[in-house]
Specification:
mainly alpha, 2 domains, single chain, Arc Repressor Mutant, subunit A, 52% helix, 9% strand, three-stranded antiparallel beta sheet
Amino acid sequence: MHRFPNPSSAVDTIINCFNVLYENIDRDEAFGLFDMQEILVSNGLISSSGATGIRALLKGSNKDLSRDKSYNQCKMFAEIYRFLGWMQSHGSALNFTFTQLGDHVASAVDEKPLVEMCFLGIEFPNELIEVSGDYSIRPFASIIKFMNELDGVLSRDEMILGPLSMLHDRDKIEWKNKVELIRGFRQKPNDFKKALSEALKSRGIKKATAENYTRFPLGALKWLNWAQPCRDKKCKYPISNTVIS
């Protein structure tokens, strides 16, 4: 399963944080996570333990960086900006520079059409990001195609077992088999739950963790107006957290 970071499921927040970084860092200057942390925290854009600003830096600061909340939030923001193509690594994995695409996003009067294309263009792996595992997917393009082939409806759990678990989304046979698998499970919800549980267990992923990986794409789908949530009772099958095109 492809794992999305989740510093925020609100795309407006992700864009706003990027714009603030762009405004406070010289265009051709390389920067790191500590630079991002200082800028975003001091501007009150991220918090730690309920605090913002300098208090957040003090409360969140930890010699063990894996437990430094604001630092790790910046790490997730950086990953998102890299796979959107707005930033790139410079010299090492945790040093960055802005890209020309990032220039356009930061200077756009109405950035939404450009951001929409950025989401459609997300592909793993790519020139900016390597991934662990032997797979090649375009997650947002695949999610939309899945919805189109499945009556315009896709649940969160189907997203986990379907498009986010593809090995190669350009493989027509694999694609057809995945779609038919999900379609068949809609008539057998208990079999679906069992298959999902077994798939996650085989990958060493807890259900709650897998659900957290979907928060970013679900938020983006809604912000982009590509899909909207619907209540289960309005849908054709009883699987929770459903999105509908």
